[in-house]
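Researcher: We plan to redesign the surface later, but first we want a full-length starting point. Tokens attached.
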């Protein structure tokens, strides 16, 4: 039977644990101070995780730790490190494990590992080991709290089962299954009923009545028509009775007030006093309008110039409206660069962009780098990293000029084969001071990258 690699861990000369090939040792075996490893070496200077055994070329190789001591023997004779090196068994910190070589690796004064190749075996426990296993293999008796909790859990479980049985057998409603569509229609018993709307022609109860002629009394202005309508009458018939087509009078005076503009004026044609017949002069509709009309009268206006030029004295509010949003502008707003428009010589920028596109150099954005082929992706990834390392220059200008808002730019650079920037398109995504935008473009135009081909790249820069 083939022999298998066997490791034995000792602490202060006492056996702790076995590790065998095919069970604990497969392609590799780790030791260290990490508590999740099978062999935990409790030494402050020991590494957290160390690959102790690994497979290399069909053989197992042990990786020695710095400061460890190796002791080997072959056929019952001690062999030193020179013998191991001459036979290509020890190279650097790697020891090739052979079936005819066994030994001990002392990791520290307290820890050591024995290694050799043995035939597979089954461990037979001694009576003392069996007694220890029998003592600690059975579970401890539960205390009163644990027993009570278990009783409650089982009680709830059985009550739930009983409730489900009662609901399924007694309380659950019966559902009638209709097998065919015809049975469903018969079960529903539809009843159709025709509804006729009540369409009744409306009738009119209007009747014409002849007004009574009442003689005019002394002191009235006009005697050619009937008197005005009595106060409080709102019917169409009463209004028609009091109308006289021959009665002419001045229109009533209106006061026009517009709150938003503060405009106040009088309607031209101010009238005299008195009351006359007709709708305009009736006491129930208007007052102060005369019954005589003079075409030579000129309109009576107040100071129209003062009215239309002077705004009313209105009081504002010191509290800002809720939900309002705006851009904080300090200084002259005319010095702000327009948002969304390229800064600088736009015609030159368009000419350079068209030239690059004509030569087949497409503009690559940050989000499209991952979709490029491997060589092109490598070049643009390097360019993106170089731009990221230079972004601090723009942030420094942002702090020096004390910009009181967050800024964002969409930038397209056209790089020559020697790495210098031939032209750049700087588009501010907001209203920023012109001198700040010009400074940003000046910095970008002065960049030089470690590239060897012409490139067109678009990216975004934010600050604040």
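Model: Full-length starting sequence:
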């Amino acid at each position: 039977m083939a022999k298998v690699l066997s490791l034995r861990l000792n602490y202060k000369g006492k056996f702790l644990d076995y590790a065998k090939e095919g069970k604990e040792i497969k392609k590799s075996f780790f030791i260290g101070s990490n508590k999740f490893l099978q062999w935990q070496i409790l030494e402050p200077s020991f590494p957290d995780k160390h690959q102790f055994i690994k497979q290399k070329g069909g053989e197992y190789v042990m990786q020695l730790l710095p400061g460890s001591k190796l002791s080997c023997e072959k056929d019952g004779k001690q062999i030193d490190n020179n013998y191991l090196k001459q036979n290509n068994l020890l190279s650097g910190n790697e020891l090739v494990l052979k079936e005819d070589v066994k030994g001990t690796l002392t990791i520290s004064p307290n820890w050591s590992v024995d290694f050799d190749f043995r035939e597979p075996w089954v461990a037979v426990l001694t009576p003392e080991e069996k007694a220890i296993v029998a003592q600690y293999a059975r579970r401890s008796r539960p205390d009163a709290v644990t027993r009570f909790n278990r009783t409650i859990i089982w009680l709830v479980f059985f009550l739930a089962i009983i409730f489900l049985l009662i609901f399924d057998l007694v309380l659950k409603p019966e559902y009638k299954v209709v097998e065919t569509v015809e049975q469903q229609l018969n079960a529903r018993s539809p009843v159709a009923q025709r509804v006729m709307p009540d369409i009744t022609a409306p009738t009119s109860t209007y009747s014409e009545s002849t007004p009574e002629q009442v003689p005019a009394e002394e002191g009235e202005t006009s005697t050619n028509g009937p008197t005005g309508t009595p106060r409080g009458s709102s019917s169409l018939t009463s209004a028609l009775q009091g109308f006289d087509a021959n009665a002419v009078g001045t229109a009533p005076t209106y006061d026009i007030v517009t709150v938003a503009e503060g405009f106040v004026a009088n309607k031209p044609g101010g009238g005299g006093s008195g009351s006359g017949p007709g709708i305009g002069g009736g006491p129930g509709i208007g007052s102060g309008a005369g019954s005589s009309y003079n075409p030579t009268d000129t309109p009576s206006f107040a100071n129209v110039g003062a009215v239309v030029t002077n705004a009313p004295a209105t009081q504002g509010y010191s509290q800002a409206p809720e939900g309002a949003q705006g851009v904080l502008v300090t200084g002259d707003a005319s010095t702000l660069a327009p948002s969304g428009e390229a800064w600088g010589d736009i015609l030159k920028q368009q000419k350079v962009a068209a030239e690059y596109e004509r030569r087949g150099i497409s503009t690559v954005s940050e989000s499209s780098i991952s979709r490029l082929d491997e060589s092109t992706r490598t070049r643009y990834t390097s360019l993106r990293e170089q731009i990221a390392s230079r972004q601090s220059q723009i942030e420094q200008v942002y702090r020096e000029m004390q910009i009181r808002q967050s800024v964002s730019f969409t930038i397209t650079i056209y790089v020559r084969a020697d790495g210098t920037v031939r032209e750049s398109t700087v588009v501010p995504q907001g209203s920023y001071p012109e001198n700040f935008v010009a400074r940003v473009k000046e910095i970008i135009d002065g960049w030089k990258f470690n590239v060897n081909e012409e490139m067109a790249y678009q990216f975004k820069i934010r600050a604040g």
